[in-house]
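Figure S4 source data
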Amino acid sequence: MSAADGPIARVLEHFHGTRSSGTGWAARCPTEAHANGDRDPSLSIGVNPDGHVLIQCHRGCDTDSVLAAAGLSMADLFPPRETKGLGTPTATYVYETADGQPTIRVLRFVPKTFRQQHWDGSQWTWGLGGATPPIYRLPKVLAAVAAGQPVIICEGEKDVHAAERAGWVATTNAQGAGKWRRDYSKIFKGATVHVVADNDDPGRLHAQAVADQVAEYAATVHLWIPPDHKDLHDHLAAGRDVRDLGRLIPEEAPSGPSTERQLMGAALMALAGQIAAAANDPKRTSKQAMTYVRELVTGLDVPEAEITGLHELHSFISTAEEEFDWLIPGLLERMDRVVIVAPEGAGKTQMARQVAIMAAQGIHPFTFEQIPPVRTLIVDLENPPRNIRRKTRNIVRAVEMERAYETGRCWLWTQPAGIDLRSGSELKALHQVCEMTEPDLICLGPLYKSFLENGEKAETINGEVARILDNIRATFGTALWLETHAPLDTGGGRNLRPMNSGVWSRWPEFGIKLVPHPDDPTNRLLTLGRFRGDRDERDWPMAMKWGARWPWQPLWSEEEVESSIEVLKVNPPRQDRSYEADESSNVSWIHGTNAS
C-alpha cells in the first residue's frame, strides 16, 4: 500500500523526519520523552491488509501519547467506510476542540470533492451534526499565540500540513473560501499573523477579508501570495520558502463594501469554480455532475442517508421496557400530542389553561393529586390579554388555596391576531419563545389561527403545519396540547372532528372531542369522546362539568355523570363573574401584538 492510499496518507503528514523503511515508514516520535527531538527516528509506522495504520515507538511511548502529541486520535488510524459513489477518501483532516478532543473531520476524494463527518462520542457520523467547526489545529494555534510565536492562516488543510513540514504553526477554516467566522479572529489577540492567499480571485478576496477581521485583534497582520504557484502547498513543494512569498497589496485584492460582503463574494466565486470544474470533469457522467452541483448549491454535505431506527426485531423486543417519562402521571407523557376539538364557547381553551397552570404548580389537572411540577407554555392565538387575565385569575387563585404559587413555571404568549407557522420570521419567534421558557408542555390554539391560507389545498397546508409542530416537539422535547374548532356539517349541526380532519385525525396520540351531554339543559357538562382511537391506555375522565372552584371538574363514572345531571336540572349554575374584581395575576407573561 502506498502513502497515497487510505488513512496512512494523513497519518504520515503529522510526523517529522518520515522516510521509507522496509515495508513501512520510520519517523521521529513527537512526545516530550524525546528531549533531543528524536533525531534518530524511533517510530515505526505500518499498515495491515485492511488499511488499519499501526504505530510503535521503540523507546516505550504508548500509542495514545504518540497520537496526542501528533494531533491525531485513535479513530484516524482506521479507514473510513466506503462512501456511495465516491470511493475511498484520499485524505482525512480532523478538527479538534481547544482541549484536543475530535469534533469534525473533512474527507477528501478524487475527483476533488470534500465531505464532513462529526464525532458523536463513539464513532464518526456523516454530516456536521449541528457542530460548529473550530479552526484547524486549534490546540497548536492556541499554544503558539500564548508563546508569542507567529501563525500562518492559509486556505486548505493541505497547505497547513505543507507549512508544518516547513516548521511553521498554521491553520485554516473548514469548507473553503468565504467560510471564515468572526469568532475565529478573536483567537489571535496580540499575535503576529501571516495570511497566505490562494493565487486566484476567490483566494485573494477570502484572504483580504480574513486579514481585515484578524487585524481587529492581532498585534500584526501580513498578507502574502505565492507569486508563481496556485497555493502555499505548491509554492513549498517547488522548493521555495515561506519567506519567498510575495506581498499581496490590499489595493490589488478584489474589494467590496464590507468584510462580510468580501467573504460572501469569495464563497460565491469558489462555488462557481467548483460548479465549472464539475461540469467539465470527464470522470463524471452528466448525472453525477448534476448531483454534485445540487449538493454544492444546497449545502448538502451528506452523501448517504443517515439510517436511524433500524433494529433486529428479536433483539428489539428483548430490550427491557423503558420507564414512562411522565409530565402528568397516568395522563400525558413527554412528546405526546393531544388535539381537543369542540364548538366555539364549549370551554376547551379554559381546559387547556387549567392543564397548563395546574401541571406547572405540581397539581394533577384532573385528579388534583400532587405531581412533580413541569414547565408549561400557553400560546393563545385568539383572545385579547384582558380577557385572558379574567379567565386565568380564578385558576391561579384556586392554586393559591392549595399552596404557594411558584412563579416562572407557567408562561403565556398572547398573539390574538394569530401567527403563521409557515412564515420564517413568525416560526422563528415561536422558537425564540420556546428557548426563553424551556417548556415541557405547550398548549396552543386555536389551531386554525396558526397558519394563513394562500389558496393551497387544506390537506397540503395542514400536513405542512403538522410537520412544523413535530419539529418543534422534537427540538424542545415537549408535549403538545392543541385545541381546534369543530366545523359545521352540511345539515348545520356540528361534526366533532377537527377542521380539515384528514391530517389531524391521523396525527395525534389522543384525539379528544368535547360533546355536550344530551340530557344536560345547561350545556355545562361535556363528555369526552374520541375522533380517533387512543394509541396508548391513559386515565382520561369520562366527562367534565363546569366547576365552582376549578373551571373544569372531572367525572369518572356513569354514576357521577347521572348524579351531576340531576343536580344541574334542579340547581342550574349562575354566571360567575367574581373573577373580574381586579387586574393582577401571578401568571408570567410574554406579551406581544405580533410575532415578527
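Figure S5 source data
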Amino acid sequence: MGNEDDRSANYPFWGPSSRFRPFSAFFSPLKFLVWRAIPARLDEAPAGINPKRRLLTMSTDSPELSPTMFKRRNFLKDSALAAGFFGLGNYLRGKNAADFSALGIEPYGPLFPDKDKILDLPAKFSYRVISKKGALMNDGFKVPGKFDDMAAFEGEGGRVVLIRNHELAFDQVDLGPFPKDRYPDSLDRSLSHDPGGQRQPPQIGGTTTLVYNPKTGKTEQEFLSLTGTDRNCSGGNMPWASWITCEETDDMTSARGRLHGYCFEVRADPKLGLQKAVALKALGRFRHEAVAFDPIDGSLYLTEDRPDGLLYRFLPDRKRDFRSGRLFALAIVGHDSADLRNNDKKAKRLAEKAQPMAIRWIEMDNLESPDDDLRHRGFAKGAARFARAEGIYYSAGALYLCCTDGGPRKQGQIFHIHPRHFGNAPPTVELFLEPEERDLLTNGDNLCAAPNGDLIICEDLITEHKMKTPHLRGVTPEGKIFTLARNAKNKDEFCGSCFSPDGRTLFVNLQGMSFTFAITGPWRK
C-alpha cells in the first residue's frame, strides 16, 4: 500500500516562535508599480487614470487592512504566503539573468522511488495512505471515488478534521457511496440536494469528512457529510471552520442540469454527520471551481473552470451569510472584455509579467439563468476572460490565482490580485508566472502555502502535456523551484493539497486512484 512507518518521527519541526521572520521583513522589499488612485466603488469605473506611476510599499498601516488580520495565527499564515509569492517575483527576475538550471533546487534532495510504486518522495519523508475509495466508512457507506480538493481544520485533542470533495456525476454510480443506483431508504431524502426519483438515479457528488489522529497515524472517523450534488471539484475554507464546496457541473442546460451549478457550505463538526445540502444560489449558477474568503470585508472570490471563464466577487448582505448579496465580475480598467489567457498567438498580449493592471468590478444579474450564459453576458459587459481559472488562495490582502492552461503553450498561469485600494494605489491584477516548456511547473491547479512560505502547487496535466508525469511542485521565498513528490503509479492528477493546522503534515490526493495521503518529513525552516 504505502510507507506505513512514519520515518520522519525523529526529525524535529520548528517551533512557532522560530518559523517566521517578522512580517515587515517579507513586505519591506515587496514593491509594486501601480496606477494612481481610482474610485473604490465596485460598480463604477473612472473616466480615466493618470498614467504617472509611483512605487508603493505594502504596510500594515494601510487604511483598508483590518486589525484582525494581524492576530497571531493569521499573521503567521499570511506572512508565509506573501513570502512565497515574493519568491515568484524573484523567480521571474532570475529567469532574465540566468539559465533555468540555476533556479531549480533540491532543498530536500532528489526523489527516491517508492517500493510500492505509488508516491515518490525525498529521503527522510514518508507518507501514509489514510483513506482510499471503496473502503467502508463509519456510517456504513463506501468511501466515494474521484477525490478532489479539501481543507484541514483543527479537531479535538490534536486531531485534524478533513473535508474532502468528490467530483462525481450521477452516471458514475460504481464510484459512489451507495450500494445501488438509488438513494438509500435509510437516509432522510430532505438531506440530499438531488436524491433522484423512480426513474432518475441520485446525484452522488458531495463531500466526506475524516477525523485523522497524527499521533497514531490513523483515521478514526470517516463519513458522508454532503450528498446529492454534482461534480464537487474545489472550494474554499472559511475561518469559522466550514468548507464551501463547489459544483463543477458539466451539463448546465438539460432539464436536470438546471438543478445544479451551485455552492454549498459544510461545517467541520464531526458530530453533525450528514448535513442538509442547501444551495447558496446567490453565489451564481455557473461551472464553479474554487472559493477564497476575504476577512476584511467578508466577500468571496469565485473561479470558473471554463476556457473562457470569469473571476467573480460576491459581497454578502450580512457577514458569514451567503444566501443573499451581490455578484460582480472582474474587468480591466481601459480594456473592456480583456483576454488575459495569452494563448492566441495572433492576438496582442495584454497580460505581461510584473505589469499590474488596474481593475474594476461589474455587477452581474440573472444569476440563475438556465442557459449557462453568465460568463458570456459578463464578457459582453466588459469582464475579463481567464483560461480555466481553478485554484485561488487569499492572504495578506491579496489573491493568488492558478489558471490551468493559460499561456502560449498552455503550461498555465498564476495571477496576483490586489482586490482593493492600498493607500493611493488602485486594485490591480498582475501576471506573476507563465511557465515555459523548459520550466518545471506545468498546469498548476490547487495551491496552498507551507508554514515556511513555500508554495505547494498541484499539477493537473491537460491533454497537450499528458506525456509528462504529474508532480507536486514548490516555489521558495527566494524564488527557487523544487519538486516535492511524484506520482509513481500513473498519470493521475494531484489535488487537495493542504497543511494541518500545526503545519507538520501535508495532506494531498491522487484523484483517479482516489488515495488521500498524509506526508511528513523535515520541512524547511
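The CA atoms of residues 126 and 304 lie 35 Å apart. Confidence is low (pLDDT under 50) at residues 1-76, 96-101.
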